Amino acid sequence: MGHQYEGPKRSFAANSPASPAIPFIHHLASSAAFKDLFREGMTLVEEAASYLDGPGREESRILPRAAAVGYSTESMRLTTRLMQVASWLLLQRAVNEGELTSTQARAERVRVKLSREDYACRPEIFDQLPPTLRDLSYRSMRIQERVMHLDQGLGVAHSREPVKARSEVASQVERLRAAFSL
Question: Is the pTM of this model over 0.70?
């Protein structure tokens, strides 16, 4: 009685320090989930272009001046954001289909600028924009976040240095040393 569980009795080769971790991110980047992300991204690009060239143009004409400026700025950011996402998706698809090596894609990747950003205008102006533009902006930011997350994972998987988590305590100690060594 009083027997305690001591964990698994067998060892796994993947857990040994000599064997490298399996980079599952590469499998994710070439999976059905990536294909869905690709399709979603390209559909969003087409949807945004169609809206901005048609109904969006008409809707922008009836906006008050401040909202019209906000519309112009937000539509430019939306277009830029989606073009960067599409560029990244196309690069990754080229790797998946064997058209580019991962090394070639990383060299091209430097031209793609994925960055988190807020909306182009103040919240009270953004709320005055047509609902379709707001929806496209929300969706484009959401897909951009997903792409950035995947991109970050691929970057870590390709790096040759192991990822080291930065300790909050070590960070505070460094700040204290810097403060007292003046």
Answer: no
